[in-house]
């Protein structure tokens, strides 16, 4: 990873206060300083450990109501220098201070806003996080315990990361942030200030979850149960869709935990959520299942000029697998087994067979 710019500013607000102010302290840090590098690595690592990220995008439908969005777009136009970076930091701070003063954030407190512009592999990122102090213990020169104030990087309650490279490529999902609906409005002041929304196309979220399910089975040698597991996942998505409910990643994680063999229980229990929430799949904690994508995994519909087929995907298998419908790849033909008495009678009648 290559750290390009780093700045720290302070937002001052006590719980239940209605006013948030921006301290004059802080500013850019020398990125070659070992302590700046240590802070950068610790913050990126702490963010990467989170398995409750929400993936989304900017609220482009109301971009005028979120000045940070236009500020970010100006920031990435042309070469990026420290002046443009600090100007964006000022814009973000102003929006964070305004959002902290909303009634829904009344009980929230201020903290240290850390802005990081860096590259990793072939991607450029902007990471913005709000961290707070914690009290620790140290020894003085006489080995007497003394209180010290430390920055608590382990508890990232508010943070957002923007993949600048994929944003420029008009990707569906280039943004992740901490905060879910279930936690209430207080956690949303940060993402709202930056114009973040959890709107990711439901088709992408659904297909990415199924893809992650298949890959997780291969990662943990669950290939023999893969069809059964993926079918359970898709069935869960179908039920949520029929009930007009969101799908929740912890629910899917429980499906995997129930299928784990004894030799993988200790290693893989509770692992699917983080696996699917990672940068490779970007499945949010909550999303709307997509009907057509679900049907593509549950139903096979095909037709030719004179006939059509519509059957459950689980009924299909290769030749000699004892599936209800078998496909022979050598002759490119289908064989239908275990016909019901009614179907047999209909076929005999059509062929005038007594």
Automatic annotation (TrEMBL):
The keyword Cytoplasm applies. Coiled coil: none annotated. It is found in: Cytoplasm, Nucleoid. InterPro entries: Nucleoid_associated_NdpA. One of its GO terms (molecular function) is single-stranded RNA binding. One of its GO terms (cellular component) is bacterial nucleoid. The keyword Cytoplasm applies. Pfam families: NA37. Keywords: Cytoplasm. Its main location: cytoplasm. It comes from the Bacteria. Belongs to the YejK family. PANTHER family: NUCLEOID-ASSOCIATED PROTEIN YEJK, PTHR38772. This is Nucleoid-associated protein. It comes from Amphritea japonica ATCC BAA-1530.
């Amino acid at each position: 990873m290559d750290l390009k710019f780093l700045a720290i500013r302070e937002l001052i607000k006590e719980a239940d206060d209605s006013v948030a102010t921006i301290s004059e302290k802080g500013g850019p840090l020398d990125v070659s300083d070992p302590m700046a590098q240590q802070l950068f690595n610790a913050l990126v690592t702490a963010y990467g450990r989170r398995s409750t990220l929400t993936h989304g995008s900017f609220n482009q439908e109301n971009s005028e109501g979120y000045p940070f969005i236009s500020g970010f777009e100006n920031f990435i136009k042309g070469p990026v220098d420290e002046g443009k970076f600090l100007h964006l930091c000022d814009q973000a701070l102003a929006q964070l201070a305004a959002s902290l003063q909303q009634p829904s954030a009344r009980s929230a407190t201020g903290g240290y806003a850390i802005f990081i512009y860096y590259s990793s592999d072939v991607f450029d990122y902007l990471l913005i996080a709000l961290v707070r102090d914690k009290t620790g213990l140290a020894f003085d020169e006489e080995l007497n315990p003394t209180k010290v104030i430390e920055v608590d990087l382990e508890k990232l309650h508010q943070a957002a990361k923007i993949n600048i490279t994929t944003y420029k490529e008009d990707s569906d999902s280039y943004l992740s942030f901490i905060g879910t609906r279930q936690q209430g409005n207080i956690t949303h002041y940060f993402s709202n200030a930056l114009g973040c929304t959890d709107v990711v196309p439901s088709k992408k979220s659904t297909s990415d979850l199924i893809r992650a399910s298949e890959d997780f089975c291969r990662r943990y040698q669950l290939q023999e149960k893969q069809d059964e597991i993926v079918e359970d996942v898709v069935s869960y998505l179908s039920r949520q869709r029929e009930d007009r409910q969101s799908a929740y990643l912890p629910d899917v994680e429980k499906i995997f935990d129930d299928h784990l063999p004894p030799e993988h229980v200790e290693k893989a229990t509770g692992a699917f959520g983080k696996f699917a929430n990672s940068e490779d799949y970007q499945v949010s904690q909550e999303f709307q299942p997509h009907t057509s994508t679900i049907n593509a995994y549950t139903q096979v519909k095909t037709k030719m000029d004179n006939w059509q087929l519509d059957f459950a995907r689980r009924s299909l298998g290769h030749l000699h697998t004892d599936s209800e419908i078998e496909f022979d790849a050598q002759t490119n033909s289908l064989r239908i087994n275990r016909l019901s008495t009614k179907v047999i009678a209909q076929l005999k009648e059509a062929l005038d067979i007594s």
